[in-house]
Design brief:
This protein is an all-alpha fold and 342 residues long. It contains 17 helices and no strands.
């Protein structure tokens, strides 16, 4: 009787042990199976010849969840631009309806963006929209990981990628407009255009560059850049005559800048207030232009010309100092005779 009880006890223990082994083994098999599926989906994505096939494979890979993460990272670290784009789109589609402020979205973005520095340029470009979702997260770590992706995009070698990152950087919630300013001098006209639109006078948010600093792009070698600059300045409140004056003011040829003095002297319509333009010309690198500004200020009978004092006493060119001193004295005489500023 005792032997029978002992036998039953050992039988139950053995059954429990077998169940545990089967459970562990089954879990391992399931995990291995998921990993196998992820590897297969990644292979399908890599070998896809059409957008439809790529999208199908990408959706499969995303649906496998966390176990597929190593394969997802492999894709984003590759130079397969089409595959990277399809995979990023599949993630965004899977997250539709989840607001950026939802902690669930932060949890999903975190593992994808944490390793973004190891991604290829194609991979970082593909996850740009995921980065834009991330920067809206209340989680500071996740939001900063999104900004890092956008920063990296500003340094990309592919023109289209830089243009997209530039547009993203200019958004108020991203707050990277100041980092776009160096791109105004980029060798690629497409990038210069995008940068002008991002930091121009009418761009949303706090200005990161003064309007006058944008004048030089009115003489850009690229007609498209010139047009974008003109549109940006118009949106910022300048009229046609003022933009024409700005173009001459920033022209590399001193002759054009001297021609602006003639327009100011003639009180060209739209330049009814010559003071600010003459003050700018008083800082011109060419001595002839600075001396001309002093003469026109006198002839326009300007009252308040503190910069004329500067030219008369501190200008590095002796001829300019002499001319400015002459016109300063003449202006004082004219004012004493009762003339008023027109």
């Amino acid at each position: 009787m005792a032997g029978s009880t002992t036998g039953r006890r050992w039988g139950r223990r053995a059954a429990v042990g077998v169940a545990v082994v089967l459970l562990i083994g089954g879990g391992a098999v399931a995990m291995n199976w998921t990993s196998f599926q992820a590897g297969w989906a990644a292979k399908e994505l890599r070998n896809a010849a059409t957008d439809e096939a790529r999208n199908t494979a990408a959706v499969k890979l995303v649906a496998l969840g966390t176990p597929a993460l190593p394969r997802v990272l492999d894709v984003f670290q590759s130079d397969d631009a089409a595959g990277c784009q399809a995979l990023a789109a599949a993630f965004r589609n899977a997250w539709q309806g989840v607001p950026p402020t939802d902690p669930a979205l932060a949890d999903r973005c975190r593992p994808l963006l944490a390793d973004a520095s190891s991604y290829s340029e194609a991979g970082r470009d593909a996850v740009l929209n995921l980065a834009l979702d991330a920067v809206k997260s209340p989680n500071a770590e996740v939001a900063e990981s999104g900004r890092q992706v956008i920063r990296a995009g500003l340094r990309a070698s592919a023109t289209d990628a830089v243009v997209r990152a530039t547009a993203a950087a200019s958004l108020p919630e991203v707050g990277l407009k100041a980092e776009v300013v160096p791109l105004l001098s980029d060798a690629r006209p497409e990038v210069r255009r995008a940068a002008l639109m991002a930091v121009g006078p009418a761009a949303p948010g706090k200005p990161v560059i003064e309007t006058e600093e944008l004048f030089r792009w009115l003489n850009d070698p690229d007609v498209g850049v010139r047009a974008v600059c003109e549109s940006a300045l118009m949106a910022g409140g300048l009229n046609g005559d003022q933009i024409a004056a700005a173009r001459m003011l920033a022209h590399p040829d001193a002759g054009e800048r001297l021609r602006l003095l003639l327009d100011i002297h003639g009180r060209r319509e739209g330049l009814s207030d010559p003071g600010p333009w003459l003050e700018r010309l008083s800082r011109d690198p060419d001595p002839a232009v600075r001396a001309g500004a002093a003469r026109v200020a006198c002839e326009c009978q300007l009252k308040f010309t503190g910069w004329l004092d500067r030219l008369a006493t501190d200008d590095p060119d002796g001829t300019v100092r002499a001319i400015a001193a002459y016109y300063r004295a003449k202006s004082a005489t004219v004012r004493q005779a009762g003339f008023e500023d027109r």
